[in-house]
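Design request, tokens follow.
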């Protein structure tokens, strides 16, 4: 395969959506809320939490692609309003971003309340039926508790006034925002974690393996479990990826390049071992590399390791191996 072929294969691989169980469950909950709203006008809200690389933004893209904007002779119809909350979000930055998305010609003009009033009118005019607020942990990241209340309260009031199902997506620490703001907490009482490891019937290792196999099916080379066998490869994949789709994808993309360079006919543990060091953690060698025979079979989440948790307790208590 030449460079062009490799780039095409990588692009196709990057664009492919795999319906892995938590992704499907989250998409279904969003679509159920949309269907309920369309049928009854009832707006139910949803909180989707997931560590970095678990697929939150991809889920938003999938939904916005499915319910695309279209034009009528007199207006644009935007069934889904998507916005990624900017770092250190303020009421002004949020309202302006949403106005811009809705095609407002001068989103920065006016006072906070006049901009909010315009936003509500535009949501109605564009027939918005679903609001997706990605990176919602940035609302919390603003800092002082009083500011949490200000942005949180503005959002609560906006959500009530537009009366449209709203989804907050963000890192697990987003839950702290809801701890601060009781009224938001009540509105977002329905929560889902976008993470492997929640199945009653499958171990997280097996879920990782299934995801690896599904993603691998999009590549032009076959996968091999080599000396380990598929069960053990699944366990090693879990430690190599922390059960996150983005890391499994990175491993596979790098392994494909490496396999083609080395003119290997398959993607197996030796190539994955190199891909882990190249792509995920340059210090991951020997017993610290999940694909090395000497690997010590533990989570790589200690200090300066690739899956070190950013805040105490974040992401703990779920996504654990079930063996
Ligand atoms: N269902 C899926 N099928 C295939 N690839 C996916 C899927 N979901 C996510 N990915 C891939 O995983 C990677 C990370 O996804 P994404 O950016 O959506 O994660 P995130 O949870 O938004 O991360 P962050 O919190 O860092 O923004 C992307 O390369 C994306 O293509
Ligand atoms: Mg994201």
């Amino acid at each position: 395969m030449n460079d062009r072929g490799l780039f095409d294969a990588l692009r196709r691989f990057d664009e492919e959506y795999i319906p892995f169980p938590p992704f499907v469950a989250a998409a279904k909950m969003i679509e159920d809320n949309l269907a309920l709203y369309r049928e009854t006008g009832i707006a139910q809200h949803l909180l989707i939490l997931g560590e970095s690389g678990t697929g939150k933004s991809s889920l938003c893209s999938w939904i916005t692609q499915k319910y695309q904007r279209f034009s009528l002779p007199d207006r644009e119809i935007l069934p889904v309003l998507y916005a990624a909350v900017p770092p250190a979000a303020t009421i002004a930055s949020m309202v302006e971003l949403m106005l811009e998305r809705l095609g407002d010609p001068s989103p920065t003009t006016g006072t906070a309340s006049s901009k909010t009033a315009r936003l509500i009118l535009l949501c109605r005019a564009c027939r918005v039926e679903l609001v997706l607020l990605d990176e919602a942990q940035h609302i919390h990241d603003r800092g002082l508790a009083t500011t949490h209340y200000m942005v949180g309260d503005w959002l609560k009031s906006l959500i009530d006034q537009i009366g449209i199902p709203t989804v907050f997506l963000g890192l697990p620490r987003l839950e702290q925002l809801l701890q601060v703001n009781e009224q938001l907490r009540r509105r977002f009482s329905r929560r889902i974690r976008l993470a492997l490891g929640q199945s009653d019937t499958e171990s997280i290792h097996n879920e990782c393996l299934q995801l690896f196999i599904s993603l691998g099916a999009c590549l032009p080379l076959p996968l091999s479990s080599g000396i380990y066998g598929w069960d053990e490869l699944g366990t090693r994949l879990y430690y190599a990826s922390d059960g996150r789709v983005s890391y499994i994808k990175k491993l596979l993309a790098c392994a494909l390049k490496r396999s083609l360079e080395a003119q290997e006919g398959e993607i197996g543990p030796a190539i994955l071992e190199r891909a882990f060091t190249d792509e995920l953690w340059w210090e991951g060698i020997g017993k610290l590399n999940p694909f090395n025979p000497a690997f010590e079979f533990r989570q790589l989440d200690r200090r300066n390791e690739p899956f070190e948790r950013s805040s105490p307790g974040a992401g703990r208590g779920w996504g654990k191996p079930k063996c």
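Comment from the thread starter after seeing the answer: thanks! The domain at 21-193 is CATH 3.40.50.300 (Rossmann fold).
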